[in-house]
């Protein structure tokens, strides 16, 4: 129903909410609620080009634009701006399918020294004015995709959602498909995403982009979002004081011809991932490093992260976790196992970076410096460590801290500490034996509970020597194994034949026992208790 507005003589016919007769009379649609794209001629039948009708509905600026169930074909990007709201009936019901590789002709916009290019091939573009942001944009209940299938259109440098500068963005129940990048923002803050997915794309999500001019962002709350079937990466998260909750990444890095760069790239200050994970994926699992463009190091918290069928880093890469350039990563809880890929290592920490691990389960021995590699002042701190074998589930480490003390529970083969010199790579192993003594062994790992020496007595040797007498020999040699001439040595006869010692001496190899007269002949008749120390 329309009504005649005699006071309006200038408004243009938009085909939906305002019509102009041949005589110039203006008729306004009477409605309460959302603007329906079908008022403007959109068909949503999967056959006709609905680009113009959808754009006219948005440009009418009369509130929420509603897209009823249907497949809406478009031949050019749909442009949204500040205050727009685009709502459908759900990603499986309301589908916007761009059928061409046609790019927008919107030119560039500037923000301080950054220049944003809007001449891109995208399904939806959030267009900002010069020196400003898109604000209060809402998108809900739609699917936006390029082509009917992943290979229908060449991906090139294309996007499903493209928004270089935006804040107060909300998206809910939205799915993106078949582009080079599914979801893309550069300078973004106060963003809320809920149940948004990016599938069958080269790159899943870019939440802020420090590699672009003026990139980055803050204050994101991202819940139950998913990147699936992505070749290069699932999540590039370049924002600070933000939370990503129960987000996933599945089937990542599946194309050997286009190997993945990472699964999660995490760059920001006070950035937290909680209850996130990945399944059926290849590539660097967590990549954390600094932000040169703003002169900050990243500080990232990852809580309760889980992997299932994670196959480790891609060919040519080594580490599942990478922390670099004065950045800091804290891993708390969760289970991060690497399936296959015996050459993969757990983590690299380099260039003054720090890694803190607390209560993380994995099938890799990340207390072993062959698995967690620190270089160029990198540091790692581990507590509550739990490493388990996929074959038998055996826990290999259990350490924890309480009341300011550090407690390590274990034995010579479960709970020892290994210290390695960073230059020579010489190692020593430290553990508590069954009697409660602290023991140390240099070189290879211990083979029994009594291996090595009790700490404080590593320069002490003692034992029992049993030798035979032939009736003519008056000097006997007992090897002490210290490698140098001891400062103290003592020999006590422990058999009748061994009595009568005249004096005792020592050199770098032996304690030397001298008799004034040769003891009488006796097989194994000479028994001494001896001790030597440096």
From TrEMBL:
It comes from the Bacteria. Residues 35-102 form the Rhamnogalacturonase A/B/Epimerase-like pectate lyase domain. Pfam families: Pect-lyase_RHGA_epim. InterPro entries: Pectin_lyas_fold, Pectin_lyase_fold/virulence, RHGA/B-epi-like_pectate_lyase. Gene3D superfamilies: Single-stranded right-handed beta-helix, Pectin lyase-like. This is Rhamnogalacturonase A/B/Epimerase-like pectate lyase domain-containing protein.
């Amino acid at each position: 129903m329309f009504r005649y507005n005699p006071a309006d003589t200038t408004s243009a016919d938009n085909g939906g909410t305002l019509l102009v007769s041949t005589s110039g009379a203006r008729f306004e649609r009477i409605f309460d609620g959302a603007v329906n794209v079908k008022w403007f001629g959109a068909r949503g039948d999967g056959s006709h080009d609905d680009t113009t009708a959808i754009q006219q509905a948005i440009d009418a600026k009369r509130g929420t634009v509603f897209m009823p169930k249907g497949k809406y074909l478009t031949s050019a990007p749909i442009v949204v701006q500040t205050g727009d709201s685009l709502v459908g009936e759900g990603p499986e019901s309301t589908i916007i399918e761009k059928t061409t590789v046609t790019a927008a002709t919107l030119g560039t916009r500037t923000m301080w020294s950054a220049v944003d290019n809007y001449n891109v091939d995208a399904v939806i573009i959030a267009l900002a004015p010069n020196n400003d942001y898109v604000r209060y944009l809402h998108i809900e209940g739609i699917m936006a995709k390029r082509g009917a299938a992943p290979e229908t259109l060449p991906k090139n440098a294309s996007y499903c959602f493209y928004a270089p500068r935006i804040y107060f963005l909300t998206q809910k129940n939205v799915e993106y498909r078949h582009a080079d990048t599914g979801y893309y923002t550069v300078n973004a803050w106060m963003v809320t995403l809920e149940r948004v997915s990016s599938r069958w794309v080269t790159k899943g999500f870019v939440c802020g982009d420090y590699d672009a001019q003026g990139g980055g962002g803050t204050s994101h709350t991202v819940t139950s979002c998913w990147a699936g079937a992505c070749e290069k990466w699932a999540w590039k998260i370049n924002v600070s004081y933000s939370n990503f909750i129960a987000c996933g990444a599945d089937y990542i890095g599946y194309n050997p011809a286009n190997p993945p760069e990472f699964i999660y790239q995490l760059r920001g200050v006070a950035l937290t991932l909680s209850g996130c994970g990945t399944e059926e994926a290849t590539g660097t699992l967590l990549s954390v490093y600094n932000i040169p463009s703003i002169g900050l190091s990243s500080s990232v918290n990852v809580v309760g992260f889980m992997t299932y069928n994670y196959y480790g880093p891609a060919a040519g890469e080594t580490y599942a976790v990478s922390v670099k350039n004065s950045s800091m990563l804290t891993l708390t809880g969760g289970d991060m196992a690497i399936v296959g890929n015996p050459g993969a290592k757990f983590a690299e920490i380099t260039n003054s970076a720090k890694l803190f691990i607390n209560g993380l389960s994995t099938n890799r021995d990340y207390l072993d410096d062959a698995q967690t590699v620190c270089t160029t002042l990198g540091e790692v701190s581990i507590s509550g460590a739990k490493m388990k074998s996929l074959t038998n589930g055996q826990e290999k480490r259990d350490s924890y801290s309480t009341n300011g003390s550090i407690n390590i529970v274990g034995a010579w083969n479960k709970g020892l500490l290994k210290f390695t010199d960073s230059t020579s790579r010489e190692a020593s192993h430290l553990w508590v034996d069954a009697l409660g003594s602290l023991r140390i062994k240099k070189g290879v790992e211990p083979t029994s509970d009594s291996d090595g020496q009790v700490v404080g007595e590593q320069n002490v040797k003692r034992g029992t020597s049993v030798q035979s007498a032939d009736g003519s020999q008056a000097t006997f040699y007992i090897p002490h194994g210290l490698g140098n001439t001891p400062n103290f040595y003592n020999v006590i006869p422990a058999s009748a034949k061994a009595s009568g010692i005249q004096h005792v001496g020592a050199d770098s190899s032996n304690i030397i026992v001298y008799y004034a007269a040769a003891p009488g002949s006796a097989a194994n008749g000479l028994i001494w208790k001896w001790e030597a120390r440096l």
